[in-house]
Amino acid sequence: MAGSTLHDGTTPLNSAPVQTSDDAHGYYTLGDNIVDTAAPTGPIADRWTTRKFENRLVNPANRRKLDVIIVGTGLAGGAAAATMGEAGYNVKSFCYQDSPRRAHSIAAQGGINAAKNYKEDGDSTFRLFYDTVKGGDYRSRESNVYRLAEVSVNIIDQCVAQGVPFARDYGGLLDNRSFGGVQVSRTFYARGQTGQQLLIGAYQAMERQVAAGTVQQFTRHEMLELIVVDGKARGIIARDLVTGEIETHLADAVVLASGGYGNVFFLSTNAMGSNVTATWRAHRKGAYMANPCYTQIHPTCIPVSGEHQSKLTLMSESLRNDGRIWVPKKAEDCEKDPRDIPEEDRDYYLERIYPSFGNLVPRDIASRQAKNVCDEGRGVGPMVGDFRRGVYLDFADAIARLGEDGIREKYDNLFDMYARITGENPYEVPMRIYPAVHYVMGGLWVDYHLQSNITGLFVTGEANFSDHGANRLGASALMQGLADGYFVLPNTIRDYLADGPFPAVDETHEAVVEARQQVESRIAKLLSINGTRSADSYHKELGHIMWEYCGMERSEPGLRKAIDMIKQLKADFWTNLKVLGTNESLNQSLEKAGRVADFIELGELMCVDALNRRESCGGHFRAESQTDEGEALRHDEEFAYVAAWEFGGDDGQPVLHKEDLIYTAIEMKQRSYK
Amino acid sequence: MNLTLNIWRQAHKDAAGAMHQYHVQDISEDMSFLEMLDLLNEDLNEKGEDPVAFDHDCREGICGSCDLMIDGQAHGPEVTTTCQLHMRSFKDGQEITIEPWRANAFPVVKDLVVDRSAFDRIIQAGGYISANTGSAPEANSVPAPRDKAMRAFNVATCIGCGACVAACPNGSASLFLGAKITHLGELPQGQPERYTRVVDMVAQHDHEGFGGCTNIGECTSACPKEIPLDVISQLNADLRTALRQGK
After folding, report:
1. Around Cβ A358, how many Cβ atoms within 10 Å?
2. In terms of Cα–Cα distance, which of B167, B195, B170 is closest to B181?
3. Which of A211, A380, A635, B219 gives a 20 to 30 Å CA spacing to B197?
4. Closest Cα to residue B52, out of B60, B65, B43, B41?
């Protein structure tokens, strides 16, 4: 890949990186570079069309002979189950919730991007592509992102046809709003509940297929192991969470759409049950985990109020369209009623530092600057530890401009939610916000076909790593989940399934028996430690370590310390955990313990990845890599690669495989939002 | 604050259940109701007693998982979900009774956890618009009047928690059903299947063992998303039209 000419004759705009720093020396071993990503070549606008044509078809009569397992029922999993079912495949869909409709995509608020250019404000597929790659700080794959932008318009058509009640203008046409990091209005929304409406659309489409008999749904089931036979993913071991029964499910292909692992931080905006287990189990079976340290910290969350807090609540960053962010100029004003602080004593720091984007800078910048002003002692709200961790998000100007009713129509549910949680009325007093872990860009490595390095294992949505680089733009997660589920996966997996049906696997096959035994012995172990600490207490401790050392700002000594702490925590977990009850019943403590065990292992790998990446990019800020002005400093010459980690065994070291990121359609630039 | 909790404990679906009393101390008023239960469970775990099972997930009022009957009210004293209920709504020394949803169609799974899969089956019966992926026309080719689209959205905010059923003396799911009928029936895309949908969904509703609606209105006052009662009027109107058409 490092040559000056690509095999299709075009010239790359950057060349392959040569890493000179090696901060993670001693924590990993270096493996071979990844060369084959199944990425197409040729003009970027034609790549997906060409590939769809090249991918082989499966005859409709053969589809009903092919079984596909899909784990997770969020936007990516639900949409895929519905679409694959409509096509006539046999789909088995799994979720840990009591209904597919409860997957955490439901909580996404703000909206979904699409390059419809309904506002005629200069938007286009190429601009959405460009904004997404730039927003991701040039750490995503250009072919994948272009495809995402390309199918974005189909998503809106599909959702409207399903009855998703998007916001409309007085003429009955679809309305748009703008979102952080971009200067066009391309975000489609359903008040502050866009994720809910999109998920219900996918859920209903999937339930229609359940009725049609093409999709079988397994609710309150958790995948605990991947079955790999002769190098191919052929099924999963799942636990029925009600009866405790360990079940074997076999198929021709397995799709993981199990979401992100932000709960590794304990406090996050994820649902309480969101976990890494499905992808981590696959990782332990050989699937590479890519860029695990890429975490998105969302700038507009409700600040922490006390030590028993179990989760953080996000408020859509669409609030930044109308709210102005500020802190007092003087630390001594921080305890005052904000309404008594005169205009000249307020520091609208984002507007000051980034005059052209102002309050709409990308999430990572907004988050880091909020942390900076709080670290300077200018934060507001209650003291948490030694600092006040909050900044104001003030709607006084917007209310003066649009009236209280105008604001109510746009943000009603968000304002209500804020009032309910904090006991304060945001129509009268400025909101207080603080960043919180929200999304992970890292995930299982996949090629252009969304296939992992394990043949037959496909990964979609937040569970994969591919489209957001080092930072995700607002309103892009819903776009990616639905793009993968409705339009990408169904068109790539068919090329694999065209070789099927694969020879039937017997439940007595040694790989199946071994996977079952792994699950059973792990559960037995968790139940038999009989120590003194709950799984929750380990989770909290892990979360503290991750937030402190692998959160918004990371440093070499901090990460080394974190790795040692996590190793100790892991040893303690397996000797001092206390889980009551049995396997043969609904046992929420047992479910939690298994998930925390996997989070602990993931946390360590995240720190190793963060340690290796001695650069600041996107959501990943390394203290050792900043400009004189304290801005993030990327090192393209060293780190323009995907870090794909192979499991190195319980006592071994992870193996790093690098995939070079080569851009032919756009030039890599340092981001500037000033 | 210190509280006394009376909680329904039931080992599994077929076991006999009973109320058990627990005491929790030092509860802060900023805690959510579920964080108060987390604390109880940590305490029980420490003592070697089986923690109380309850459904919960997003804890931001949108997934519809949480479902507690608190002092006889679905989701407790405020108009919100259990997870968004905060302890500032209670007083020091208060005795609180916590039960699972009570309805024939929602059998208890364990303690406070119930089986709401009947809702999925009602949706399977017709709670969708048939539009295969890839078959959709350009989104703006069919305008939807703004007031109708807004009504569709307002009722589509139903989270499927089942509070309406738990609150109804008849154990009816008419509010849930009416919300879906209205959501899809207000949109131009929902018209082709409008009248078969209502017949099929109502038949499934009855088959699941939900009761009939007698216009009591407990459902709408318990609904955390404030789905209005007029969706049931819409349900009945559509059903009447459908039956007249012989669907």
Report:
1. 16
2. B195
3. B219
4. B41
What's the pLDDT tens digit per position in B62-88?
999 999 999 999 999 999 999 999 999
pLDDT per residue as tens digits for the range A302-315: 998 878 889 999 88
CB-based contact A100 B120, cutoff 8 Å: yes
- Is the CB of residue A14 less than 8 Å from the CB of residue A48? no
From chain B, the residues in CB contact with A259 under 8 A are none
Rounded average pLDDT over A214-240: 98
Average pLDDT over residues A13-41: 92
> Structure tokens of B217?
């209105």
Tell me if A609 sits within 8 A of A643, measured CB to CB: yes
User: Residues A363, A378, A432, A560: which is the catalytic one?
Assistant: A363
Distance CA A316, CA B3 (A): 35
Residue that is written with structure tokens 């076999």 in the block: A250
Q: Which residue among B88, B119, B153 sits closest to A190, beta carbon to beta carbon? A: B153
Amino acid at A540: K
State which H helix or E strand residue A657 sits in: strand A655-660
**Element (DSSP H or E) covering residue B37:** helix B33-47
User: Is the C-alpha dihedral spanning B51, B57, B58, B60 positive or negative?
Assistant: negative
Return the pLDDT at A673: 67
Q: Is residue A645 a contact partner of residue A292, using CB atoms and an 8 Å limit?
A: yes
User: What is the three-class DSSP state of A443?
Assistant: strand
**Residue contact B146–A156, C-beta within 8 A:** no
Provide the pairing of β-strand A253-256 with A457-459.
Answer: parallel
Nearest residue of A to residue B43, measured between CA atoms: A534
pLDDT averaged over chain A? 94
Is A363 an annotated catalytic residue?
Answer: yes
Amino acid of residue A360: L
pLDDT at A5: 58
Tens digits of per-residue pLDDT, A63-111?
A: 999 999 999 999 999 999 999 999 999 999 999 999 999 999 999 988 9
> Which chain B positions have a beta carbon within 8 Å of A580's beta carbon?
45, 48-51
Instruction: Please compute Rg for chain A using Cα positions.
Output: 24
pLDDT digits (tens, 9 = 90+) for A351-410: 999 998 899 888 888 998 998 899 899 999 988 777 888 999 999 999 999 999 999 988
| Minimal C-alpha gap between A621 and chain B (Å) | 28
- Phi-psi sector, A172: left (phi>0), alpha (psi -120 to 50), beta: left
From the list A205, A272, A580, which residue is nearest B56 (CB)? A272
How much is the pTM? 0.96
For A40-72, b/e burial (b = at least 16 CB within 10 A) is beeebeebbeebeeeeeebeeeebeebbbbbbb
Chain A CB contacts of B143 under 8 Å are 168, 171-173
What chain A residue is nearest to B146 in terms of C-alpha separation?
A172
Contact B236/A at CB under 8 A: no
Closest to B35 (Cβ–Cβ): which among A100, A204, A308? A308
Count of C-beta atoms within a 10 Å radius of residue B1: 17
Look at residue A255 in the predicted model and tell me its pLDDT.
98
